[in-house]
Amino acid sequence: MARSKSSKSWLQEHFDDSYVKRSQEDGYRSRASYKLLEINDKDKLIRPGMTIVDLGSAPGGWSQVAAKLVGHKGRVVATDILAMDGLAGVEFLQGDFTEQEVVNELLGLLDGATADLVISDMAPNMSGMRDIDQPQVMYLAELALDLARTTLRPGGSFLVKIFQGEGFESYQRDMRESFGNIKVRKPNASRARSREIYLLAADFKGLDRFVVKS
After folding, report:
1. Strands 115-120, 90-94: parallel, antiparallel or unpaired by DSSP?
2. Residue 3 and residue 137: Cα distance in Å, rounded?
């Protein structure tokens, strides 16, 4: 089947991308690794011994970075609707995070432990139509925030990908109810034309935890 001009353009951009080339040279699973590395360099998010929950982890770029930085005394619990090849130091759960059963399984993996950091690079399959894509993006971000509120220790942090558009400002207001400090990050590894940005919420105030629904 012949490729469209847009798909050919995307492929050309992808293979010309310096971060794609670097990821291949450095042994990272995706160019997204550099987004987390850049944010971490700036904000010192990840330290040895931390427990991290990675939402939307496949193909493993963020989990790979997190596992290396937390070291053998740390822990990374990851989930995605897509399969992900195994990574040393990463416990992976495949399932649809929008389903409560999968959330319960994820909480079961934590087995009562608190997380120091929740990271989410989740995004829906994009249609290119903002009126369709934006609500789906916001829905996933809201689920990620709910999970962060459920699992984080007081003082913990939450990093989430979000797109600027309808619902963005109200989402920030909602985050401020639970976190003492909110920062906006647009790493260089994010493509300039992309509307994606990252919200980094620190100093979690603490809420009721581990509410497992039947």
Report:
1. unpaired
2. 27
Catalytic residue (choose from 8, 161, 205, 213): 161
pLDDT score, position 123: 85
Split the chain (214 residues) into runs of 10 and give each run's mean pLDDT.
45 58 77 94 97 97 97 97 96 96 96 96 77 87 96 97 91 95 93 85 78 47
Closest by CA position to 146, among listed 171, 121, 167: 171
161 catalytic, yes or no? yes
Secondary structure of residue 176 in the 3-state scheme = helix
Q: Give CA 67 to chain center in angstroms.
A: 14
Strand positions, DSSP E, 18-102: 51-55, 75-80, 90-94
User: Residue 54 and residue 117: Cα distance in Å, rounded?
Assistant: 9
Q: What sign has the CA pseudo-torsion 175, 200, 144, 187? A: positive
pLDDT attached to residue 182:
97
Closest CA to 81 of 140, 29, 13: 140
pLDDT confidence of residue 127: 65
pLDDT given at position 208: 53
Provide the pLDDT for residue 1. 45
CA dist 27 and 54 (Å) reads 19
3-class SS of residue 153: strand
Domain 30-204 has CATH 3.40.50.300: no
Run of H or E including 117? strand 115-120
What does pTM read for this prediction? 0.86
